[in-house]
């Protein structure tokens, strides 16, 4: 009798997402639960809150070693082969050659000088995609329980970017187990729109076709939040073919 009741209860719990059976992330990824993104700037027609569904996000940014495997398998994305429409002249500038990252691009360092087009193609090659801004911001808002966190993040935004980056995985881990969302590099996101987010770019056909990236997130509505305004300024300055010395990416996946 007790066995039958146990099986019945387990069956009932399994019918409710997030209860007895949680979604498992693919290898190297973390599950980010549903959340809400509140855009920093919006028009009167835009949503005050953008709902975000459960998704998976890479635990680490894409490294030079990761990207080397991609260009080996896809020669048209090698530095000497890429067409200028897909990346500017600084594409993989810090690499020693097409298939030799070299000392300026350590294998375990985050890949930078990559365009949005290249990042998107890499993600597709891996069977993934780039995260939307709303997804990235929700993941990055899961901050460590540290009273000095906001101050440290503000200091990072206010400091000139380093020419050499630490290996991935050495930054703080947020509550979902994701590393380096703050304090390492900026990261591309998928959205084809301006910094005023109106919804999920995968299903929104009314967006302006500009591109931007995400890089740090907390309390976007707070006018005293210096990092939020730095994000907005940087995002609105980018185009898809741009490559920047402190701009990398990580991948996401639907669950």
Could you explain the architecture of this structure?
This protein is an alpha+beta fold. It has one domain (2-254): paralog of FGE (formylglycine-generating enzyme). It has helices at residues 2-14, 64-73, 116-125, 133-140, 149-158, 226-235, and strands at 29-32, 35-37, 50-52, 55-58, 186-192, 211-214, 247-248, 252-254. The strands form 3 sheets. A 3-stranded antiparallel beta sheet has the order 1-4-8. A 3-stranded mixed beta sheet has the order 6-5-7. The protein is globular, with a radius of gyration of 19 Å. 36% of the residues are buried.
Task: Record the SSE blueprint.
Blueprint: H1 2-14, E1 29-32, E2 35-37, E3 50-52, E4 55-58, H2 64-73, H3 116-125, H4 133-140, H5 149-158, E5 186-192, E6 211-214, H6 226-235, E7 247-248, E8 252-254
Parallel strand pairs: 5-7
Antiparallel strand pairs: 1-4, 2-3, 4-8, 5-6
According to CATH, what is the class?
Answer: Alpha Beta
In the predicted model, the low-confidence regions spanning at least 5 consecutive residues are 1-21, 196-220
Strand content: 5-15%
User: Which whole number gives the mean pLDDT?
Assistant: 77
Structural class: alpha+beta
Gyration radius over CA: 19 Å
CATH architecture heading: Alpha-Beta Complex
**Sheet with the most strands: spatial strand order:** 1-4-8
**Apparent shape:** globular
The percentage helix is 10-25%
């Amino acid at each position: 009798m007790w066995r039958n009741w146990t099986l019945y209860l387990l069956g009932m719990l399994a019918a409710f997402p997030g209860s007895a059976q949680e979604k498992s992330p693919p290898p190297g990824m973390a599950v980010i639960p549903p959340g809400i993104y509140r855009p920093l700037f919006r028009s009167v027609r835009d949503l005050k809150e953008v709902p975000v569904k459960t998704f998976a996000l890479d635990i680490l940014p894409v490294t030079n070693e990761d990207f080397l495997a991609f260009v080996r398998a896809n020669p048209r994305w090698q530095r000497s082969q890429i067409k200028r429409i897909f990346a500017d002249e600084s594409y993989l500038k810090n690499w020693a050659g097409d298939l030799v990252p070299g000392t300026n691009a350590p294998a375990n360092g985050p890949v930078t000088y990559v365009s949005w087009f290249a990042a998107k193609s890499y993600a597709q090659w891996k069977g993934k995609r780039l995260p939307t801004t709303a997804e990235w911001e929700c993941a990055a808002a899961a901050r460590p329980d540290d009273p000095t966190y906001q101050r440290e993040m503000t200091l990072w935004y206010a400091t000139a970017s380093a020419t050499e980056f630490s290996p991935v995985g050495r930054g703080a881990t947020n509550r979902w187990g994701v590393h380096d969302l703050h304090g390492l590099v900026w990261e591309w996101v998928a959205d084809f729109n301006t910094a005023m987010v109106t919804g999920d770019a995968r299903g929104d056909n009314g967006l302006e076709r500009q591109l931007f990236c995400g890089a740090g997130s907390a309390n976007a509505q707070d006018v005293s939040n210096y990092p939020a305004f730095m994000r907005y300024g940087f995002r609105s300055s980018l185009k898809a073919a741009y490559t920047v010395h402190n701009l990398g990416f990580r991948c996401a996946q639907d669950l």
